[in-house]
Design a protein that fits this description.
Largest sheet: 3 strands, parallel
Shape: globular
Oligomer: single chain
Number of strands: 5
Radius of gyration: 17 Å
Length: 164
């Protein structure tokens, strides 16, 4: 199970700052930077999907997970996910099987009844396939590595309407 992605300490463990307040400010800056933006259309789409499917989130972030969890709450997304697995809390990054197994455990489902959707071939698709999950890659078919074979390829997450 252990690979070059395991263990993966959170960002704060790397900071050698003597001043705890400075360390806290640096961690907060990193956490804010990692949030990204979830467009309103994507939020609506996730709400729609959560009405008929159990969904989880596996996120690679290096900063403290609290800011991401707060952001999910602010956007009213936190309650949509039956599992939120964050690399800085788990001590590993994708494609570590630990993250995918944690999501499956928290969702209470077997890998044979789950689908992982991701936009990084190496981190998302390879990691999920290692755990026996079906995979949907968000990308261009022409960009699939020669030895890669996701179960499905879509260009945008909204194309997942086939799940309806």
């Amino acid at each position: 199970d252990l690979g070059p992605w395991d263990p993966f300490p959170p960002y704060g463990d790397f900071l050698e700052l003597a001043d705890p307040e400075e360390k806290s400010r640096v961690e907060a800056t990193v956490a804010e930077h990692e949030l990204g933006v979830v467009p309103d259309s994507r939020v609506a789409w996730l709400r729609h999907l959560a009405r008929t499917h159990r969904i989880g989130l596996v996120s690679d972030i290096w900063g403290p997970a609290g800011r991401l969890r707060a952001h999910l709450g602010e956007r009213e997304l936190g309650s949509l996910f039956g599992a939120v697995v964050i690399s800085s809390e788990e001590g590993a990054v994708k494609p570590s099987p630990r993250l995918f197994r944690a999501a499956l455990d928290r969702l209470g489902c077997r890998s044979s009844s789950a689908v992982f959707v991701g936009d990084s071939f190496e981190r998302d698709i390879v990691g999920a396939q290692t755990c026996g999950l079906a995979t949907v890659w968000i990308g261009q078919r022409s960009e699939i590595p020669e030895d890669g074979n996701p179960d499905r390829v879509i260009e945008t997450v909204e194309a997942l309407s086939f799940l309806d």
